[in-house]
Amino acid sequence: MDKNIKTLINQTDIRNVIKGLGTTISYDYRNKDLNVVCLLEGSLVFTANLLLQIKIPVNLYSIKVTSYEGKTSSGKLSYNVKDLDFCKDKDILLIDDILDSGLTLSTVVSEMEQAGAHSVRTCVLLNKQVNRSVNIVPDYKAFDIDNEFVIGYGMDYNGLYRNLPYIGVLKG
Ligand code: IMP
Ligand code: MG
Questions:
Q1: Over the stretch 159-168, which tens digit does the pLDDT of each residue have?
Q2: Cα of 159 to ligand 2 centre, how many Å?
Q3: Which H/E stretch holds residue 26?
Q4: Beta-bridge mates of residue 124
Q5: Ligand nearest to the CA of 149
Q6: CA of 170 to the centre of ligand 2 (A)
Q7: CA-CA distance, 54 to 22, in Å (whole number)?
Q8: Cα–Cα–Cα angle for 57, 63, 66, nearest 5°?
Q9: Calpha distance 11→97 (Å, rounded)
Q10: Average pLDDT, integer, range 94-116
């Protein structure tokens, strides 16, 4: 499957940066209860690998959210979880694969705050350099990338390529 894919970020770089991120998060949350929320399916691989680099106790939750159809955002967010009650009084670290338009993270952050979260911070594998309509800056990020469609390390194109162990761009 790899011959149509250009490597954007290789496995070694991903591993090293995630290790550093895990160290930073462990330090920042050393005096708090850390509640990690994984946005499925895109951030599953990133969350799993980040968790292994966090050296303090962690509670893990997941929410399924979709906004993309093919290579473009549908602009609408769909959830399968109506109930964010678990957030009440908790310090939440919300993990996503990419910060693109900002719709996903800004919506979920504000709903978690409405659900009574004590704090909500965001952590993304990739921060896309785009002009966002929504004003959101991730609290933690692994990499900045240009505005191009990427696959691998959990990210898909129409459901495929999530199992690619590096981050790539489809050629052509
Ligand atoms: P936003 O709501 O526009 O910020 O989009 C964020 C979501 O869109 C991410 O959680 C990804 O699932 C998906 N997404 C955005 N850009 C890409 C991409 O380049 N490849 C794969 N998925 C993407
Ligand atoms: Mg996603």
A1: 999 999 999 9
A2: 11
A3: helix 11-28
A4: 96, 141
A5: 1
A6: 18
A7: 5
A8: 140
A9: 15
A10: 94
Tell me the best of 40, 62, 67 to mutate to test the pocket of ligand 1, counting ligand atoms within 8 Å of each CB and taking the most: 67
- For 6-24, how does the pLDDT look when each residue is reduced to its tens digit (9 = 90+)? 999 999 999 999 999 999 9
| CA–CA distances in Å: residue 84 to residues 8, 32, 66, 67 | 35, 20, 16, 19
Burial class (CB in 10 A: 0-12, 13-18, 19+), 16: exposed
Residue 77 predicted with pLDDT over 70: yes
Q: Which CATH number fits domain 11-145: 3.30.230.10, 3.50.30.50, 3.40.50.2020, 2.60.40.4070?
A: 3.40.50.2020
Alpha carbons 67 and 146: distance in angstroms, whole number: 20
Compute the mean pLDDT over every residue in the chain, rounded to the nearest whole number.
Answer: 92
Task: Quote the tokens at residue 44.
Answer: 């599953």
- Overall pTM surpassing 0.90 (yes/no): yes
Please state, in angstroms and rounded to a whole number, the distance separating the CA atoms of residues 54 and 157: 29
